[in-house]
């Protein structure tokens, strides 16, 4: 019996030593995992705070983006309105130009018709207006009526006037007669 007790005691002691070593191993593992647990615990407690900050940052970014989008939409609409106004002004100017072109063409036609009524003279000039082309015709009274420019006329009482400026020629002013 003593032997059995002694064997039992040796077994118990061996189990105790194994348990003690196992406790030491587990203690080392706990000590090694403790900092990691603290980090995880801190992250767990800080995570909602960080999530709140992230949510707030996302919300702010969305609001800024929405505000910028609205601002750009308003600027685009303003640019479209300005472009439409410019197009209306341009169309109005084109209409005015067309009307002026028609008026110019009408006056040109009238002037060409008026010029065809005058008999052109060669090389008629005055000392004052040497650069203008001229025309003349003999009126009913025998006077020679000539034009130096569309706005200046001259008269000559000499029947021998060849249509060139001579001593008998005088300015009559602006053109009022038509033949």
UniProtKB/TrEMBL annotation:
GO terms for molecular function: structural constituent of skin epidermis. The keyword Coiled coil applies. GO terms for cellular component: extracellular space; keratin filament. Keywords: Coiled coil, Intermediate filament. Residues 1-118 form the IF rod domain. Belongs to the intermediate filament family. Residues 13-96 form a coiled coil. GO terms for biological process: intermediate filament organization; keratinization. It comes from Meleagris gallopavo. InterPro entries: IF_conserved, IF_rod_dom. Pfam families: Filament. This is IF rod domain-containing protein.
């Amino acid at each position: 019996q003593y032997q059995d007790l002694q064997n039992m005691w040796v077994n118990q002691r061996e189990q105790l030593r194994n348990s003690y070593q196992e406790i030491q191993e587990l203690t080392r593992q706990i000590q090694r995992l403790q900092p990691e647990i603290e980090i995880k615990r801190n992250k767990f407690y800080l995570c909602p705070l960080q999530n709140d900050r992230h949510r707030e940052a996302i919300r702010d970014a969305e609001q800024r983006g929405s505000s910028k989008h609205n601002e750009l939409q308003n600027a685009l609409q303003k640019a479209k309105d300005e472009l439409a106004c410019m197009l209306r002004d341009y169309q109005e100017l084109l209409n005015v130009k067309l009307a002026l072109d028609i008026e110019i063409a009408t006056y040109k036609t009238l002037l060409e018709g008026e010029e065809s009524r005058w008999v052109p003279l060669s090389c008629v000039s005055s000392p004052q207006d040497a650069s203008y082309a001229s025309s003349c015709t003999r009126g009913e009274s025998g006077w020679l009526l000539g034009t130096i420019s569309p706005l200046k006329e001259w008269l000559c009482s000499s029947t021998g006037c060849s249509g060139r400026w001579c001593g008998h020629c005088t300015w009559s002013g602006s053109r009022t007669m038509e033949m």
